[in-house]
Amino acid sequence: xxxxxxxxxxxxxxxxxxxxxxxxxxxxxxxxxxxxxxxxxxxxxxxxxxxxxxxxxxxxxxxxxxxxxxxxxxxxxxxxxxxxxxxxxxxxxxxxxxxxxxxxxxxxxxxxxxxxxxxxxxxxxxxxxxxxxxxxxxxxxxxxxxxxxxxxxxxxxxxxxxxxxxxxxxxxxxxxxxxxxxxxxxxxxxxxxxxxxxxxxxxxxxxxxxxxxxxxxxxxxxxxxxxxxxxxxxxxxxxxxxxxxxxxxxxxxxxxxxxxxxxxxxxxxxxxxxxxxxxxxxxxxxxxxxxxxxxxxxxxxxxxxxxxxxxxxxxxxxxxxxxxxxxxxxxxxxxxxxxx
Length: 340
Known about the structure:
The chain is mainly α.
């Protein structure tokens, strides 16, 4: 019987296997002939006798990790939550309650087939796809899976719903209708600063430097520092907020989901569709693009990995280019960071 795999050695001295059926080649990452031959025979035996080979593989894995044949996806979910903190942990605690995961919760990792994961993705939402990918990668990083169940390129594409920026007319309608002074000020700062709702809601009075007209804080998501120069409009908003402690005492205490729900209710009452609190970031990014704000400065304000920045500066925001002569008359020399 012709063997499925062929063993050969390249000029570098590293041994490779070639699948005679698909012609795909795989590095064995070894220059030791004895080790390469053992892998070569194991691969061919696994092809000829898959059931027996699976039991042999389990025996080897149990010798290094006794929990291998018992570890379920629920165990993985519980363990990944332990590695998270703050708002990220809350999001994960919510995510693992997804009913789409019920079909695999008690399924042993080594008994999981690609069809099991694909079915969960099909039954779930975009969030299911995103979090299941992360669970799968977590297992690989922890060596709880000897190989990927679904190759990276074969995962169903993650397709988020299109998000849009909130317009000034919509923002103005919301703050005009809003009667609660704290929420009204919160929405105004979101418009002017473009910060995430968590960052803005947790601002404190001592974050404001009145003398230099700046506000500084650490982004809750990444921990990176942000320093923003404030316009007169923002200074006027801050003057009406508490001079000590939290600028938004109530909003700082509620969950992000509650803040989002309150905002959605305001929008629904005004007939505004397709926006969320995150739309303020998209609006800020698009305004920055249209105004000619340097992309580097926008990245510093919203975060270098902000999708709002990438989208606005890539194609979304429409810019009316001034003539060179007009720009020369209005140009402002921007400060350049000193080289390190």
